[in-house]
Write a structure and sequence with these properties.
Layout: H1 6-41, H2 48-75, E1 78-80, E2 87-89, H3 104-107, H4 112-117, H5 133-140
Antiparallel strand pairs: 1-2
Helix pairs in contact: 1-2
The structure holds zinc ion.
């Protein structure tokens, strides 16, 4: 059953982390919109710094989501072609769709080996990486 499959548990953890990050990304988009509008309404207001902070946070979260998606694929025995983004079997050396060669270092998630041998699934470190701005900013931006 899926419940006893460590891969399924890892995938569920990754997916939960992705969902949380997506919520944060949406909130940052909302905040950027609010900051931008304040600036638009009042030329004396300069929210550039606040806006840029959130843009950076979105970029960081988007990259983290991308990495988690790669990890989920890895658990499923798949990897993404760097050229055409097609899902390929992990063992493939060349993309079956476009023929691009896989770079061995790039195809496997860096932290994967450590996690499989040592860290239990519940010790997923990914959730702490959310920027600290998240907690304080949501209310301030009203
Ligand atoms: Zn390809």
């Amino acid at each position: 059953m899926a419940f006893f499959d460590p891969k399924a548990k890892n995938i569920a953890n990754y997916q939960r982390s992705i969902d949380e990050k997506k919520v944060s990304v949406s909130r940052y988009y909302d905040e950027i919109g609010r900051y931008y509008y304040k600036q638009y309404k009042d030329l004396n207001v300069d929210n550039t710094k606040d806006i840029n902070t959130r843009c950076d946070a979105i970029t960081k979260l988007t990259n983290e989501i991308e990495e988690l998606n790669v990890k989920i694929l890895y658990e499923k025995g798949l990897k993404l072609c760097p050229s055409c983004r097609t899902e390929n079997n992990l063992e493939y050396t060349f993309c079956f769709k476009c023929g691009s060669r896989f770079d061995e270092q790039a195809s496997a998630p860096a932290a994967e080996k450590v996690e499989e041998t040592e860290a239990p699934a519940e010790a997923a470190p990914v959730e702490e990486e959310t920027p600290a701005a998240e907690e304080t900013s949501a209310e301030d931006a009203e």
